[in-house]
Design goal:
353 residues, Alpha-Beta Plaits, MutS, DNA mismatch repair protein, domain I, DNA polymerase, domain 1, five-stranded mixed β-sheet, four-stranded antiparallel β-sheet
């Protein structure tokens, strides 16, 4: 039987800012854009969450919920650097690390570098290593599979550790709500609730035809999860397929030169990412969202490269193929796709991953 750990950093962006700025410690903090504009919350500290501030809500609403909210502009370069420290710890324990984002991952520690037979002990040591090296806390879930481990990691946040031993699986699952299941968002949850299906026990006991009629092809998958069954392996080193950056502006932009500078800067960020990953990109893409929310994309493929100037020039040329010079713009984005290694590029382009 596998021993899986899901590790999730606690309020990651906000916690990094509180660590680096003593004046923010113990105070409600939101990382994101300005409340006077279209800014949204990218992350909220636990002090802010107590007021109902959550990620993805407008910052203007967040400040109404918490007038004393401390707003900090995101510094993703800093967050990526801390993330790298955390993942170095993970990979020192096991090569079976599956990243989900900058601040969370699955680890299969059935066999581990510490020769530790108990996954609970491994999780405790990982949490301690993270605190020592980064000054931050993480929550961990330990279970026989990925589904259960991910639920467990969120059970006692922050700085939590929840263990679901095989003998405890049934008791743990019995009264969980249906929206604990992957694939059950608000819309699907409402449909299930309308049929009287509110807990995982209900999913298991309802007539199969009713479940199929309610969620369609998801029925078998949800039924397996409701039984605590998940045979997916931890997938390490998932190849990156692309990198992209985008920005929604506080006020619509109508200056084409400013747009070109913005797009070029994003493209150079992507070029820097390629060099960090030791990859090249064949395709450059851009995204433009006009003031009326109409969104267009453009792309151009050529010889694989990681050169700042080439990628930026291609992105600007793509921008000039849109109506940006004639219409106000609220969002710009740039990305690179069609990735390959330098070795495969030398042999004729081959995709990476």
């Amino acid at each position: 039987m596998r021993r899986i750990i899901h590790v999730d950093m606690d309020a990651f962006y906000a916690s990094v800012e509180q660590r680096d700025r003593p004046d923010l410690r113990g105070r409600p903090v939101a990382v994101g854009g300005s409340p006077q504009s279209r800014g949204v919350v990218a992350a909220a500290s636990y002090e802010a969450r107590a007021f109902g501030v959550r990620s993805a809500i407008p910052m203007s609403r967040a400040i109404r919920l918490c007038p004393d909210l401390q707003i900090v502009r995101a510094d993703f370069a800093k967050y990526r650097a801390v993330s790298q420290q955390v993942f170095e710890i993970f990979r020192s324990v096991t090569p079976l690390v599956e990243p989900l984002s900058l601040d969370e991952a699955y680890l299969d520690v059935t066999v581990n570098a510490w020769d530790e037979p108990l996954a609970t002990t491994v999780a405790k040591r990982i949490k301690a290593e993270i605190r020592t090296r980064t000054g931050l806390t993480a929550s961990a879930g330990v279970a026989p599979n990925k589904f259960l481990a991910k639920i467990a990691s969120g059970w006692q946040k922050p700085d939590g550790l929840t263990v679901i031993a095989p003998a405890r699986v049934e008791a743990f699952l019995r009264d969980l709500p249906v929206d604990a299941l992957w694939g059950v968002g608000p819309v699907t949850a409402r449909r299930l609730h309308d049929r009287g299906i509110r807990t995982l026990t209900d999913v298991r006991t309802v007539e199969p035809g009713v479940l199929r009629e309610t969620v369609g092809s998801q029925a078998d998958w949800l039924l397996r999860l409701a039984r605590g069954e998940d045979d997916r392996a931890v997938q390490p080193n998932r190849a990156a397929k692309s990198s992209s950056s985008e920005c929604t502006y506080a006020a619509d932009i109508d200056d084409i030169q400013q747009m070109r500078e913005e797009i070029a800067a994003m493209a150079r960020e992507n070029a820097a990412w390629l060099r960090q990953k030791q990859l090249l990109a064949r395709t450059v893409t851009i995204k433009v969202r006009y003031a009326d929310f109409t969104t267009v994309t453009r792309n151009h493929s050529s010889v694989p490269t990681d050169d700042d100037a080439q990628i930026a020039a291609r992105a600007v040329a793509l921008l000039d193929r849109t109506d940006a010079a004639r219409r106000p713009v609220r969002l710009l984005g740039a990305g690179v796709h069609g990735l390959c290694t330098r070795e495969s590029s030398d042999d004729g382009w081959l995709p990476f991953g």
